[in-house]
């Protein structure tokens, strides 16, 4: 019996890396300028309970700017300052706020919101 060999394609398609459900990337419409550096995207990390100190969760869910200005410096990479957040394009701030609010939801609901 002869065994048939199948040809392997020259390039094997690589599987996409698994998406971390505890992180979300925000591509900024208006980059943040820090000295000579231009920040075009930021990564938000799901906050731990201690990083939410001093903020009412309902304020984050309602996208309150003052609450966001307290929490975002604690969960962004690169770490943004209060001043940078205060000067952020409103559309970018709303995008960040939506991602932060989604992190406060249960896993099943969060996946639906972050994938949208």
Task: List the SSEs and their pairings.
Elements: E1 23-34, E2 37-45, H1 57-61, H2 65-75, E3 76-77, H3 82-86, H4 90-103, H5 107-114
Antiparallel strand pairs: 1-2, 2-3
Characterise the protein shown here.
There is one protein chain. The protein has 116 residues and is an alpha+beta fold. The chain contains 5 helices and 3 strands; from the N terminus they run E-E-H-H-E-H-H-H. The chain has helices spanning 57-61, 65-75, 82-86, 90-103, 107-114, and strands at 23-34, 37-45, 76-77. The chain has a 3-stranded antiparallel β-sheet. A hairpin with a 2-residue loop joins strand 1 (23-34) and strand 2 (37-45). The radius of gyration is 20 Å and the shape is globular. The N and C termini lie far apart (53 Å). The model has no long low-confidence stretch (mean pLDDT 87).
